[in-house]
Amino acid sequence: TQWQTIKTYSEILFERQDQIAKITINRPQVRNAFTPDTIQEMIEAFNYCRDDSSIGIIILTGQGDLAFCSGGDQNVRGNGGYVGKDHIARLNVLDLQHLIRIIPKPVIAMVRGWSVGGGNILQLVCDLTIAADNAKFMQTGPKVGSFDAGYGSAYLARVIGHKRAKEVWFLCHPYTAQEAYQMGWVNKVVPLADVEQETLAWCHEILQKSPTALRFIKAAMNADTDGLAGLQQIAGDSTMLFYESPEAKEGRDAYLQKRQPDFNKFPKFP
Ligand code: 1HA
């Protein structure tokens, strides 16, 4: 498989092949732990994918076989969050979680090795997860003086159930790929050597489908879990489609032509 660099960053790799973009956390020396700068680069890359209409699907992964992501880099954990080059303490991974949720294209996590803490929540908020058979999933917050009481808890409970989600957070045990699969935490487990090939196969199959249909499916599931913010998204998608209709264009054109709109000619469907 041939990946072409979209843009060079210091803490991530950002590549594409055809309609598939791949964002790779590239800090293997710390098991792909993130700093606010790593997250800022990822936010920029995801926004690029959102805006580029020739990109249909995004893979999120970590460099190397040992880890997807080990969460916040504890070396730069300050007092109110993690501290990057600008010396400001931030929890900007929460912005990235939200962006992954609202980007109207499928996002697939490709997990090799450890998926831990805030890194495991990034995996959780991706639409699908393909795990290598060496993947291990773990929350550590209560061990290291942290917690994610947002998507990391409430959405985790939606995905794997309340009893399991509480167990994950109260005990902080590691779970194998197979155990995660049984919980519905990941979609498929494959041998480590096959994980990229399998992820690409899923991407190619999804890319054959109607992008607008996929967009509404994703938005509908968000609407169910994200309350008014989720509803706003699916509402925005409806507006996007409506703007393409003669009825909406009549409203715009009448305004610009300083005349009364004639909406009577449009059918009132059952
Ligand atoms: O909870 C939140 C948030 C909550 C709300 C809002 C925002 C949040 C943002 C982030 C987070 C968090 O992510 S809290 C959880 C932080 N992460 C951890 O507690 C995981 C710590 N690491 C580990 O448990 C283990 O390293 C590991 C299970 C991932 C891997 O174990 P392994 O394979 O035995 O490797 P190990 O030798 O432990 O690690 C290799 C190197 O990577 C070590 O450095 P070295 O001794 O070679 O110098 C290790 O210190 C480093 N490393 C690994 N993970 C991290 C790390 N360094 C800094 N931060 C890390 N997270």
From TrEMBL:
Q: One MF term from GO for this chain?
A: 1,4-dihydroxy-2-naphthoyl-CoA synthase activity
Per the record, the GO terms for biological process are: menaquinone biosynthetic process
Q: Does the keyword Lyase apply?
A: yes
Q: Which PROSITE patterns match?
A: ENOYL_COA_HYDRATASE
The record ties this protein, via CDD domains, to:
crotonase-like
Output the SUPFAM superfamilies linked to this UniProt entry. Answer: ClpP/crotonase (SSF52096)
Which Pfam families does the UniProt entry name for this protein? ECH_1
* Record-listed E.C. numbers: 4.1.3.36
**For site (Important for catalysis), what residue positions does UniProt give?**
Y82, Y243
Binding positions for hydrogencarbonate?
Answer: Q139, T140, G141
Q: From which domain of life does this come?
A: Bacteria
Q: Which reaction does it catalyse?
A: 2-succinylbenzoyl-CoA + H(+) = 1,4-dihydroxy-2-naphthoyl-CoA + H2O
In terms of Gene3D superfamilies, this protein maps to: 2-enoyl-CoA Hydratase, Chain A, domain 1, Lyase 2-enoyl-coa Hydratase, Chain A, domain 2
Q: What is the top EC class of this enzyme, as a single word?
A: lyase
Q: Which UniProt keywords apply?
A: Lyase, Menaquinone biosynthesis
* Cofactor entry: hydrogencarbonate
Q: Name one GO cellular component term.
A: cytosol
Identify the metabolic or biological route this protein is part of.
Quinol/quinone metabolism; 1,4-dihydroxy-2-naphthoate biosynthesis; 1,4-dihydroxy-2-naphthoate from chorismate: step 6/7; Quinol/quinone metabolism; menaquinone biosynthesis
Residues involved in substrate binding: 31, 70-74, 82, 114-118, 140, 146, 243, 258
Relate the protein's function as given in its record.
Converts o-succinylbenzoyl-CoA (OSB-CoA) to 1,4-dihydroxy-2-naphthoyl-CoA (DHNA-CoA).
> Per its UniProt record, what NCBIfam families does this chain match?
menB (TIGR01929), PRK07396.1 (NF005637)
By sequence similarity, the record places it as follows: Belongs to the enoyl-CoA hydratase/isomerase family. MenB subfamily.
What's the protein here called?
A: 1,4-dihydroxy-2-naphthoyl-CoA synthase
Q: What organism is this sequence from? A: Bombilactobacillus mellis
Question: Gene name?
Answer: menB
